[in-house]
Inverse folding.
């Protein structure tokens, strides 16, 4: 059985500040980490590996520095890792990212199960998983919170909806996105980091893809465009109190507004 | 559609350094030469804020679709087999507003086993057309079957826009349809607008933080977006005038994922339905701290809610989280304690009617969105507030 987990390098902090004078986004581009939701995806894959002897591969799309998160996945216990990196992938939105990852997964060989984290902390769309599944013409189940059974040709999972819990059986090959807390993720092993010290991560460019048409990748393959960025609207009619007896003022107001 | 062009003749070591610095994504790198890597999000800050003329944005002519062929705004009707999810009606309300700008129609798309359960209610919200795919295989949401239906609908009817509720279902379904049509789907929009050329303006908080991005999808149709529950108000019912069309199912309803069982969860009180909420942020570090906030909530007949860090540190349950990645709430009264007010949080509470905020930092963004701001220490103000409320209510 072959499992692929899709992971992403994200900024270490989600706090983006806007310089009030220049309007420039202030973010430390050098501090990065693995998207925390991907840790659950890797852990889920490794648990299935322990049970079935599956081979677990990880894949990411990003700049050459994204090898950091791939190494981390190897040290956690994954068996190989591939980086999709090419200037032609730059500026990709959800559709182009999903398409690139699906092409990369095809280029890696046969797979039975793809596992993604439910979303990333920088994009927060939760869309890439389901879109990869569509690009590969395979079924998917999103927000899986429990693996119930791994069978020979299918997997049984549960998902938590607003009012109900649903149990689904999904045939291989398929894709699942896993929710936070499905398992507690292990830490990268120091021992493994020594054992795998010489491991070279595979680097794939557009030339390694089945589809080498540039217009399907990166900015050219992205239907959406960011037109502008702007600060959120402010509430003009606000009242700010800074005096001493704040509690009294608030209690009076609550009474006047008939909340008491 | 366009591309970023690096003008090598303008590059000096200083310019290169400035360019690398200006990119919030670390996507501009210098090894042998300056290049833009796959971290680029096309925010174009390097063009606007970088050294003049070093990187420019150049439009590229691309084959454009005929926008006149794609008409009307369609809303996916989500249901659990018994009732329509109210977010679907909220979207109909918004769709009617947007449709006025371009004089187009509003359509509802329903996949189900028995449409008579839902038909009258949907029409009562004033859609012009209701398209129904009715089959026992469609009794429950199944992403493969529903995507085949939506594909058929989009090919037959050619809507300009398709909207989905930002629920577990909508967020699994929308991306599938978007990838099939290779079109844009903007997740969790908080504002939607319409241009006269029928381009949908989709605004959402971006980059995890304090900024909004305005997104368009100018060269593909349909344009699609998901919107969380309670972002838009519930529209009023009208005298129905819309028409119903039953769509023939001429395609496969086979699926490789099948529902085995549905179990009812224990009913939990949902913060998105609450009238009064007291929300706490990471200043609340212990169970004792929370007890204080809980007491205030109970005195006001409300519930306790929180921000994302409170979930991450395990102090509170994920179902109590307000924000884009949690619940969207629209209570009559919201009191925030020690919450700075990142856009992600504010986006989840913009429907609150009256907001009181207590925070020590008078520059905190929460004071831009609240109605009554108290600059001070919540741990000093709240005990005194509880005392005052007890006096007013005549409680000992």
């Amino acid at each position: 059985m072959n499992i692929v987990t899709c992971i992403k390098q994200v900024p270490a902090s989600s706090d983006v500040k806007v310089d009030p004078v220049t309007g420039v986004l202030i973010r430390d581009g050098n501090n990065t980490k693995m998207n925390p939701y991907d840790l659950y995806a890797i852990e889920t894959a490794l648990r299935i590996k322990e049970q079935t002897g599956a081979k677990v591969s990880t894949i990411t799309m990003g700049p050459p520095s994204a090898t950091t998160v791939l190494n981390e996945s190897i040290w956690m216990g994954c068996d190989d890792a591939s980086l999709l990196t090419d200037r032609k992938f730059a500026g990709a939105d959800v559709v182009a990212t999903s398409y690139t990852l699906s092409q990369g997964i095809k280029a890696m060989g046969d797979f039975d199960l793809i596992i993604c984290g439910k979303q990333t902390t920088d994009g927060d769309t939760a869309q890439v998983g389901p879109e990869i599944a569509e690009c590969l013409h395979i079924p998917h189940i999103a927000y899986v919170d429990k693996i119930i059974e791994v069978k020979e040709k299918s997997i049984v999972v549960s998902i938590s909806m607003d009012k109900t819990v649903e149990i689904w059986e999904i045939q291989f090959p398929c894709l699942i996105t896993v929710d936070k807390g499905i398992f507690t993720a292990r830490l990268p092993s120091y021992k493994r980091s020594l054992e795998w010290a010489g491991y070279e991560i595979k680097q794939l460019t557009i030339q390694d893809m089945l589809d080498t048409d540039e217009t399907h990748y990166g900015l050219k393959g992205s239907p959406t465009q960011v037109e502008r960025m702007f600060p959120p609207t402010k509430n003009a009619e606000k009242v700010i109190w800074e005096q001493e007896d704040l509690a009294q003022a608030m209690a009076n107001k609550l009474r006047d507004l008939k909340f008491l | 559609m366009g591309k970023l062009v690096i003008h090598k003749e303008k590059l000096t070591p200083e310019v290169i350094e400035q360019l690398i610095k200006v990119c919030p994504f670390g996507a501009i790198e210098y090894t042998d030469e300056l290049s833009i890597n796959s971290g680029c999000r096309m925010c174009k800050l390097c063009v606007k804020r970088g050294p003049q003329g070093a990187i420019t944005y150049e439009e590229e002519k691309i084959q454009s679709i005929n926008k006149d062929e794609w008409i009307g705004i369609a809303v996916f009707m989500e249901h659990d087999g018994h009732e329509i999810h109210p977010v679907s009606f909220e979207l109909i309300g918004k769709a009617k507003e947007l449709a006025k700008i371009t004089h187009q129609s509003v359509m509802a798309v329903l996949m189900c086993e028995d449409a008579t359960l839902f038909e009258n209610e949907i029409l009562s919200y004033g859609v012009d057309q209701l398209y129904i795919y009715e089959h026992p295989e469609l009794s429950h949401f199944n992403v493969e079957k529903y995507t085949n239906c939506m594909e058929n609908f989009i090919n037959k009817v050619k809507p300009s826009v398709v909207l989905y509720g930002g629920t577990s279902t909508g967020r699994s379904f929308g991306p599938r349809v978007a990838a099939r049509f290779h079109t844009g789907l903007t997740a969790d929009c908080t504002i939607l607008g319409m241009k006269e050329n029928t381009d949908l303006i989709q605004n959402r908080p971006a980059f995890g933080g304090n900024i909004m991005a305005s997104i368009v999808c100018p060269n593909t149709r349909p344009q699609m977006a998901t919107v969380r529950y309670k972002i838009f108000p519930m529209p009023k019912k009208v005298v129905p005038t819309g028409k119903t069309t039953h769509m023939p199912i001429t395609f496969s309803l086979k699926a490789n994922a099948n529902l085995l069982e549905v179990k009812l969860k224990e009913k939990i009180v949902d913060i998105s339905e609450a009238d009064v909420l007291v929300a706490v942020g990471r200043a609340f570090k212990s169970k004792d701290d929370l007890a204080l906030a809980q007491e205030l909530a109970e005195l006001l007949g409300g519930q306790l809610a929180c921000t994302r860090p409170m979930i991450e540190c395990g102090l509170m349950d994920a179902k109590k989280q307000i924000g884009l990645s949690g619940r969207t709430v629209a209570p009559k009264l919201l009191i925030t304690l020690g919450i700075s007010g990142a856009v992600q949080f504010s986006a989840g509470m913009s429907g609150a009617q009256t907001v009181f905020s207590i925070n020590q930092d008078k520059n905190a963004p929460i004071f831009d969105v609240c109605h009554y701001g108290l600059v001070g220490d919540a741990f000093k103000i709240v005990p005194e507030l509880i005392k005052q409320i007890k006096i007013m209510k005549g409680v000992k």
